[in-house]
Amino acid sequence: MHNVFLSLVQMMPDSRNQGVVYLLVGQVRRGIGALNKHLGDGAFEAGDTSTRADCSLVPALWMCSGSLPRLGAPNPLEGHDRVTAYWASIQ
């Protein structure tokens, strides 16, 4: 999540450092990949009921899915089946 906040200073195309963008996007995608491996099959992050984990994860996924495409990067949730399913169900 920290990397998404760091990417916000790269939003202005005139002053964007594409090397920094590639680095941050790669780190976010790696984190989403790790999350994809650990998510269960329940409706929520940690099982069948909403927990504090969901309260942390939902804003993070919202930032990832909204911010990175504005940098010209693909949505980092795409290609991660469990994360995509979780995100679709929690919205």
UniProtKB/TrEMBL annotation:
Residue ranges of every copy of the GST C-terminal domain listed in the record: 1-91
CDD domains per UniProt: GST_C_family (cd00299)
Coiled-coil region: none
Protein name, as recorded: GST C-terminal domain-containing protein
Organism, as annotated: OM182 bacterium MED-G24
